[in-house]
Amino acid sequence: MKDQLKHLQELVQDAIDKGATNVEQVHRRIAEMPFSTLEKFASGPAKKANEVSQHTIGTIYESIRGLNEKVGRLAEELLNRGDKVAATATTETKKVVKSARSAAKKVVSKARK
Description:
By secondary structure, the protein is mostly helical. The protein has one domain (about 1-110). Helix content is about 90%, strand content about 0%. It is built from three helices and no strands. The chain starts with a helix and ends with a helix.
């Protein structure tokens, strides 16, 4: 049973990672479309705005993948240690989520400037 749960944890973590990467690629292409048009009229500002947009998109999806990795490690730890870690894992998960929120807020704040 433990091996099956470990395998499931790895499958879910891998699916989230690959899914985030695929969505990021689509997001980047879609976000670039209006900037390509704008570059015909104002290449400098449009190029800079596109760079900021692409950086923001990258940072967001890096955060998602990073959070996925941390949650995966916590799940693996829980599977390896059993119920004794449940309380610690909950606290650690809250810290990870708080960290991800903070990183996302910083990205949004920089993008707005």
